[in-house]
């Protein structure tokens, strides 16, 4: 969130009127024509930069001001602050003509970089960038005395090829590749020259260049890399660093047509070791085409970086740089091996040794991801077993580093990128969903979009039900992870520190450390699936964690559960068999009353349950008979109405819709009668009219659904029609009673009375009622609604005619 003052400034910038903006631009135009740039000019440009960047749409500035800003931007004699502000304003305003900016590119490196940033932002197609591209390539070929232009060339070139990869011809790609090889491999080995003051009485003098050192202080004995340390650097050393930073994107863009053709693949399969030996020699390397030579030198560079990363750094910043270089080096080697499989046999010894060194060191957890990617891509080529790598990756990283946001994001991205391969080749991928969901439980707001995409790949037939329970318990997992973190930070003996967490959290921390509840927390924090779908003492766990229900992390986690449930059910219902559907229905009936008590969480989850209960029964109607005992037990309890009315209403609806012999021949008269009697008793209990009765706490919709379901069941066992008619005849008395009138609106009471009248009239014609209230399984086909020769429209017309002719059918 912005500070109040900042928000006020942004609001003012967004609300400025067009006339006021034009006047303000006119004042700036006059200020820019003065000889001396004052602070007022800088302040005005800063305000204009805020105005044009505060809105989503581009502001249109006066053409004369835009031309003046372009002049300032292209003038190397202007102060850099003015160039920065001019570049920012032009980028955010309506696109000017980029051709005028590229017409005569400046040879000043600073000015050229600012102009290039505007051109790349405003360019609409490749032709707009072509003059800039020609100037960049020309600067690469030239050997200017100051050398400054080249340092700004590579970042601009990298951004350009990312936006327009087809802008370079093959000859130009070869030119750049040769330059990259020179910078990457042949940078100087001495530090850059630095100026010394020379003392008080003498002028400045140039120090003799000192040798570069490794991160551990040893003098460099091999070629220069980004891990070589010095007080200052030469221009070619800076170009070496820039080259390494862009080599990955360059290889991905322009190295796809190197040696990865059929001939080279066959050659590598026949004698890959011989090819590796030949390509490793310097003489043969110089004879390679530019793209292949760049690949060779990049591979050697990455191998050297991995060797350097094993040194003990003297500074913490160098240690972090070593980690970053490992990640980038392994990724580049992975790309090279993908383009030329002969490199796989040279790379694997290095990658194996690196994994053996980093495995078990949590500070290098992020570096394990590119190593795992390398194994995933090339282990089959090299006939290397990768099971141990992925077992370590999925079992330890999420469990021990779930609270590292960057690792969490990169880990989930790795799974998304390789989901199909992981499902087929990594046995413990789907078994590790309890661990993977720890990332989401801790970083729910930041990873929900990724997990919506990832979740379908985690669903397997043998663990689908356990995954459903785990999703429902996700807020409990968030609370348990929070307690685990707090417990690791504070000792049980330090009661003062514990109490500072708050009385509620302190009580939960006490419970977390008690042996009595250890089994509950071990299950909820389990690293992999297979120990059981859920636990018997789930209600006890909810009670233990009750004081954590208002924790912001737990609340945010609870908000993502309904979204995940939608994805889960939409995926499972497409491929679930009869057994799994029966299991899911039982979970819906069981877990709707076993949810972590968080505000609005239960209501939102039950809405999802209600929707997918209908979907399950529509896909497999025999579910009602298969689980008749559990459904009957649920529906016969009026207590379920008051705590979970929406889900209860849907259960009653599916009973009336699918409990029919037309869907399942096992649906006997006895079964229909048992359901009828249970629902009849529920309707009688909740609609009793007593003087002391309190207003109903349920909606009129529940009453109408109960009445309709009873009528449907009666048409399938017509001996029940008198009983349901008697029950329906009492609805007017119920709807007109004082407690109901005080609670329901006039429209609600009329709805109940009208539905009761319609059902009574329909039941007076049992055969017609059976046809209308209980259509066959194919009754939802569009043909029933279009074909006038079909029996359903005829039946509806017959019923309408009878009801209109015999007004005595209508009860008074």
From TrEMBL:
Q: Which residues belong to any copy of the AP-5 complex subunit zeta-1 N-terminal TPR domain?
A: 1-280
* Domain (AP-5 complex subunit zeta-1 C-terminal TPR): residue spans on this chain: 450-802
InterPro entries attached here? Answer: AP5Z1 (IPR028222), AP5Z1_ARM (IPR055450), ARM-type_fold (IPR016024), TPR_AP5Z1_C (IPR056856), TPR_AP5Z1_N (IPR056857)
Residues in AP-5 complex subunit zeta-1 ARM repeats domain copies? 321-438
**Pfam families xrefs:** SPG48, TPR_AP5Z1, TPR_AP5Z1_C
Which GO terms of the cellular component aspect does the record hold?
A: AP-5 adaptor complex
The identity of this protein, by name, is Adaptor related protein complex 5 subunit zeta 1
